[in-house]
Amino acid sequence: MARIQIPLDALTSRLNLSSRLEGVNSQSLSTRFANLRPISEFLNFSRLSKPANFGEVQSRVNYNLGYFSSNYVAVAIMLLIYSLLTNPTLLFDIVFVAVGLFGIKKLGGRDLELGFTRATTSQLYTGLFVIAVPLLIWANPVATALWLVGATGVSILGHASFMDKPIDTAFSEEAV
Question: Burial, 53: exposed, middle or buried (Cβ in 10 Å; 0-12, 13-18, 19+)?
């Protein structure tokens, strides 16, 4: 049976994803949110329109991903917070592990001495692992992560493809 080959490099080069992702790690948080566009511009319903063809979709997505990048990061963060709030078991497990690791680190390598027993650091890590992993499996983080990827992708790509470019940008591209 012949394998189907999907040219991923062709898809990523058309959307210019590699150059967009290069600057993500080099920017600080304050720099990232310094160019946050106003909500009135981000949700300008008068600029929403159906693209005529796939070429126009690509053009809009390329423009809007660069122009509204900070807004899209904010949307992704809001969806992440929403997904954690709607999955309280996962949220509890994350907080439980964070507090447990903080508490074990706070001991500074010393044993935890309770009145009737003594627990080494290794035993504390093992206990944390034994409690946290079944809770994590029960919380179903894979479904939450897949929902987050899907909701973020649909929201961001939907907005980027239906939000028309400003008029002045469209005329400046035609002149070139």
Answer: exposed
